[in-house]
């Protein structure tokens, strides 16, 4: 335990609504980013295009200089992409510290069904990071990041595939490294929350069902490809699926009870 | 059937990578947006802040002028937010057509585990919209959109809650209406795809398990709140959960087989 590192609060990342749900802890924010299968990365293409752009990308937090760093320590965000994509071209040409990006990850853990539409909500975890993106040019760092990203989708998968990538594969892949400037997270858990005036209105409470519907991601049974020659699904895959399904389900169900006195947990 | 409406291809929304997976059909794009529980909305706060911002928001496609319009017809995107949030202030003050935003929705339908890290992928559906956001000022349209958004989370929920919203609820809620300028979608389905050189390498194929792990969202058993007085979970909730779970699971499993000859479907 000891110290808890937090991101500095700037205008850009300070949460103003439902402040009690906000977190600036590196550990909490990085773990939301890492538990998301897809990250949404936004950047500004610039004039004449008035619109920001969003790309769904695969990525993960890591430190090449200190590979053993924990999730609660300063980390970079590594994103995987294709060499000629627009974000890569912009990041390559960007002046100064790199291309300014915003990285977002969100997941829904439950539907909060309360007495009024206004008090409806989700249980959720969301996080954003702001930072400057640059393509990784060091070959060793690039290979290290490619392995990190592959294993972030399925632990140990890298060593169970045909590696290392050949020259064509290395040159068609670009890894963006995002130097993180700030970040914030928001977590909503618990049950229904209604106003007294509605809770005291029998006409309403006798008619409106209130509660939580837990929501989580489920990995189904692996389907071998017609060309697969390995008999049986390897243990590192089956155990990942079993662990994730249990973890995701437990999180969604446990989140419902947060904040309730023990005797009222349901 | 008849005509299929498509968004115009501009620089900002034209897909350059894996073009065969791209779609510009309004129906396909709007249905990806509407099937997402969370939309990621980006906007540029502007100087001195160099970073674009991303907000997770709840929203849905709709047409106030033609409420019976189908998903494959021109629609606006309605987003739900809090009155004093930054995006609402920017949208209120925006000149011209409104605040330029990008709206993104993505979902993962399966992990594609192939012979090399480079050929790994997801089955997924993603969509983006570009448009101009303005707060809805017409009270009738605002109330209509609030009902539409609530029912997009859980069909029929609006009429099963305490409605209409009171004055305080109406004024604390802002609905953003996004006039869509263009959009695009990307859909990846099917199985593993590897290069011949790896498929012909017995050392690799004898060692590497290949296949697809379907992924989908699962709604769990509803948990009544300690204060709930309605006995039993209402049918409109249980049937929604059953339908969605079946639909989501079927999509993820069926996606694996897309493109396979019937005799090879697995």
TrEMBL record, chains A, B:
Superkingdom: Eukaryota
Q: Which InterPro entries match?
A: Pyridox_Oxase-rel (IPR024747), Split_barrel_FMN-bd (IPR012349)
Note one Pfam family from the annotation.
Pyridox_ox_2
The protein depicted here goes by the name: Flavin-nucleotide-binding protein
Ranked from the top, the taxonomy reads: Eukaryota, Fungi, Dikarya, Ascomycota, Pezizomycotina
